[in-house]
Design goal:
The chain is α/β, with parallel strands linked by helices and about 400 residues long. It is built from twelve helices and 13 strands. Helix 1 packs across helix 3, helix 8 crosses helix 10 and helix 8 packs across helix 12. Bound molecules: 1,4-dihydronicotinamide adenine dinucleotide.
């Protein structure tokens, strides 16, 4: 069967298995081309391991450090007439590559918020991998059923202080229009904190530690975002920002809890990038399109793998004290937030409209990265060819 992208809003309902494999290979090659990472982890657990920052983290741990990895993700296999989700293919590709190098690898597909999946991870670590020295928490989820109360919480992307109006981009059509996001209710703020805040991360760390599955000196890291003025009302000062504040507070709590094993907990503030999670956030596709143009012109653009490669080499395993800002956060958004970059983004944002999207932004770069998430548009892949049934 020939597989083509079928785009619905900010989703693509098909994924190309060969393209997804090629994209994982590219990321592996990127890490390998920089050489082995000294002092890296030997055993890593990655929650949210199948796409975006989590997949890049798993690749850096395995192919940069030679670590055995256990991954957890929420992905779907192929069904009759429907391809699997891209994270499914990417996980398969990761596993095949890890197997070739003799690296331990196992992936558990299911809801990381649930007690069942936590129990399965604990059992697998106990019987197979042993205590981990790196625990990456890279979940981006729309919903969480609380394992204790059974309440289903749904995250929303809304402002907290006042309704917010600004320009937004439909990246399929290239049309820029204005939208207003209504104020979140206090319940919506709470629900978003429940889903994307730090409680689940802390539950994982408590459990791993109580089962002696965090090795002495273990590091745990979760990912956060800050971003520019134009996205502040809906991102950092919005519901998702409240959740990120909670995640960042949790890092401090975990830092205390890990002291006795000489462990450390960090939030790493990463760069805005096209992922399945970020394409659903209002204003982000427009901001990212403009940001890409500016950062590419300045020669400082990075994707997930470049960011995470830098996280491992220049931050987590730099050898010595891990560099952070005054609030203890690792900053990988240093280039995105540079004054000259943000001034240029602001200048372009003021005049941006449907008519000048092509010249004033990197709309094509956005679209191409979006398609790549689903395995399309990768160099060297013959998209006109039939994909063998056994690969789907
Ligand atoms: P993504 O959508 O590419 O990846 C999300 C991962 O979570 C996937 O592996 C998915 O299978 C997994 N997942 C979702 N629900 C799950 C569940 N219930 N149980 C188990 N696994 C589940 O997202 P992305 O962008 O890589 O985000 C990861 C983290 O990085 C998030 O905390 C996000 O806020 C943060 N971040 C993202 C930025 C961006 O621009 N994309 C910027 C800075 C931080």
């Amino acid at each position: 069967m020939v597989i083509e992208p079928r785009i619905r809003g900010f989703l693509c309902t098909t994924a190309h298995p060969i393209g997804c494999t090629a994209s994982v290979e590219e990321q592996i090659q990127h890490v390998k081309s920089h050489g082995a990472i000294a002092n890296g982890p030997r055993k890593a657990l990655v929650i949210g391991c199948s796409t975006g920052y989590g997949l890049a983290s798993r690749i850096a741990a395995a192919f940069g450090c030679g670590a055995g990895t256990l991954g957890v993700a929420y992905e779907r296999p192929a069904e009759k007439g429907r391809t699997a989700s891209p994270g499914w293919y990417q996980t398969r590709a990761f596993e095949e590559a890890a197997a070739k190098e003799g690296l331990y690898h196992k992936s558990i597909m299911g809801d990381a918020f649930s007690k069942e999946i936590k129990d399965e991870v604990i059992a697998t670590l106990k019987s197979e991998l042993g205590a981990v020295d790196l625990f990456v928490y890279s979940l981006a989820a729309p919903r969480r059923v609380h394992p204790v109360t059974g309440v289903a919480h749904r995250s929303v992307l809304k402002p907290i202080k006042a309704p917010y109006t600004n320009k937004t981009l439909d990246f399929n059509s290239g049309v820029v229009s204005e939208i207003t996001l209504e104020l979140a209710t206090p319940q919506e703020v709470e629900d978003t904190i429940q889903v994307m805040g730090g409680e689940d991360w802390e539950m994982w760390v408590d459990l791993l530690k109580s089962e002696d599955l965090l090795a002495p000196g273990a590091i745990t890291v979760a990912y956060s975002y800050i971003g520019p003025d134009v996205t502040q009302p809906v991102y950092r000062n919005g519901t998702i920002g409240a959740a990120k504040d909670h995640l960042e507070k949790t890092a401090h709590t975990l830092q205390g809890k890990l002291k006795d094993i000489n462990g450390q907990a960090f939030v790493s503030v990463n760069k805005a990038l096209v992922t399945q999670a970020s394409s659903a956030i209002p204003f982000m596709p427009l901001y990212i399109s403009v940001l890409y143009k500016v950062m590419k012109e300045k020669g400082i653009h990075e994707g997930c793998i470049e960011q995470i490669d830098r996280l491992f080499r220049d931050r987590l395993y730099v050898g010595g004290k891990i560099p952070t800002d005054e609030q203890g956060r690792i900053r990988l958004d240093d280039l995105e937030m540079r004054e000259d970059v943000q001034n240029e983004v602001k200048r372009l944002w003021v005049g941006i409209a449907t008519e000048n999207m092509v010249g004033q932004s990197d709309l094509e770069g956005y679209r191409s990265d979006f398609l790549r998430l689903f395995g399309f548009g990768i160099a060297g892949v013959d998209y006109a060819a039939d994909v063998p049934e056994e690969l789907i």
